[in-house]
């Protein structure tokens, strides 16, 4: 049987930045091939394992890739550290141990590539297209880091570009123009003052947020600019559709918009509904439950009618940071909680 903590230590030594997951996928495939209970299938740098069983069919999903960063592995007493320790090699290792446990449930496990980059390259989506029936499951758990709590659903996310108009002039005579950067400051202030909704959905509280994440404006060092572009990211609760979220964003920004300004939604995806139905045993084993603040592939699974939660080892606040560390006890605890639920 695979031991998750030892495997996580080995996985941390295998670089797997997005689009470079072949080596880690090969490694996991080789480790799992010796288990006679598993039926393995490989597509590109994505791996699927099937374990037949009874009861509801369950999918466990975890991505193999990491963001770029310093490739340094370290161990300090009861923690493991390194690029991807939290997001999400600890979860990937936990999946591997669960795959070799004696369980009662009908189980599908998916290790997939390119989650950290554009959705068009996401390995879970590519697998769903290449393997019809893969998502014909009753329940799913995405092993994103959750600090050992079960996180229900996920937020939707929307990215919009706002272009504000001004009037160009010489910077020695700024009163002859209208500075689009000054207008942008007013818009950013409006963005920062959005009162976040906090709806209770599925018994847990979601907190929305709106942030300015990028700004551009420049003509020359002696010119008052006549346009400014601000990109906003709206994280909305899963009771809103992307269309409803876009309408709410536009309504909020309207007081600082003028004729000629434009708001363009460049990307928007729905969240996943918060539901505990079917996951009660996992929540009991984990000991805590809350809302998922952020978007995960639980949202993608929801578009295919699959109820999904997030549950994995590691503090999500450390994801993508130089100090990613995960407690060994948390990895083991994740395995035991999943195994307890899946064996029931």
Relevant terms:
single chain, 344 residues, alpha+beta, Aminopeptidase, 9 helices
Could you explain the architecture of this structure?
The protein is an alpha+beta fold and 344 residues long. The chain folds into two domains: 4-153 and 273-343, Zn peptidases (Aminopeptidase); 156-269, Alpha-Beta Plaits, CATH 3.30.70. Helix content is 28%, strand content 28%. The chain is built from nine helices and 19 strands. The strands form five sheets. It has an eight-stranded mixed beta sheet with strand order 1-2-6-3-7-18-8-17, with helices on both faces. A hairpin with a 2-residue loop joins strand 1 and strand 2 (46-51). The model has no long low-confidence stretch (mean pLDDT 96).
What ranges have pLDDT less than 50 throughout 5 or more consecutive residues? none
Which series of helices and strands comes N to C? HHEEEEEHEHEEEEHEEEEEHEHEHEEH
Examine the secondary-structure arrangement and name the CATH architecture of the largest domain. 3-Layer(aba) Sandwich
Question: What do we call the CATH homologous superfamily of the largest domain?
Answer: Zn peptidases
What name does the CATH topology of the largest domain carry?
Answer: Aminopeptidase
Percent helix range:
25-40%
CATH class of the largest domain: Alpha Beta
Biggest sheet statistics: 8 strands, mixed
Walk across the major sheet and give the strand order: 1-2-6-3-7-18-8-17
Secondary-structure-based class equals: alpha+beta
Extended strand count: 19
Whole-number total of structural domains: 2
Q: Outline, from the CA principal axes? A: elongated
Strand content range: 25-35%
Number of helices: 9
* N- and C-termini, Cα separation: 20 Å
What is the overall pLDDT average? 96
């Amino acid at each position: 049987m695979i031991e998750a903590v030892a495997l996580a230590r080995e996985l941390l030594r295998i670089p797997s930045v997005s689009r470079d997951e072949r080596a880690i996928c090969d490694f996991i495939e080789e480790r799992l091939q010796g288990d006679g209970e598993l039926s393995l299938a490989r597509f590109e740098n994505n791996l699927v394992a099937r374990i037949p069983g009874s009861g509801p069919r369950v999918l466990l999903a975890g991505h193999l890739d990491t963001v770029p960063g310093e490739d340094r592995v370290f161990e300090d007493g009861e923690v493991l550290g390194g690029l991807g320790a939290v997001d999400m090699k600890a979860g990937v290792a936990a999946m591997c141990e669960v795959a070799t446990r004696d369980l009662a449930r009908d189980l599908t496990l998916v290790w997939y590539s390119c989650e950290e980059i554009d959705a068009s390259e996401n390995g879970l989506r590519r697998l769903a297209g290449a393997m019809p029936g893969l998502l014909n499951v009753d329940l799913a758990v995405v092993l994103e880091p959750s600090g050992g709590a079960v996180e229900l659903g996920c937020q939707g996310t929307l990215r919009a570009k706002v272009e504000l108009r001004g009037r160009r002039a010489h910077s020695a005579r700024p009163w002859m123009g209208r500075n689009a950067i000054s207008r942008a400051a007013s818009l950013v202030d409006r963005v920062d003052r959005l009162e976040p909704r906090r709806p209770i959905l599925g018994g847990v509280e979601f907190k929305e947020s709106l942030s300015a994440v990028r700004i551009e404006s420049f003509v020359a060092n002696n010119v008052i600019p006549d346009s400014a572009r601000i990109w906003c990211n709206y994280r909305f609760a899963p009771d809103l559709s992307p269309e409803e979220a876009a309408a709410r964003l536009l309504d909020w920004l309207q007081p600082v918009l003028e004729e000629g300004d434009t708001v363009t939604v460049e990307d928007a995806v729905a969240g996943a509904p918060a539901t505990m139905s079917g996951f009660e045993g996992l929540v009991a084993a984990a000991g805590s439950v809350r809302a998922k603040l952020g978007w995960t592939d639980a949202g993608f699974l929801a578009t295919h009618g699959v109820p999904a939660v997030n549950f994995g080892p590691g503090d999500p606040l450390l994801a993508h940071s130089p100090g990613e560390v995960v407690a060994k006890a948390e990895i083991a605890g994740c395995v035991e909680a999943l195994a307890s639920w899946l064996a029931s």
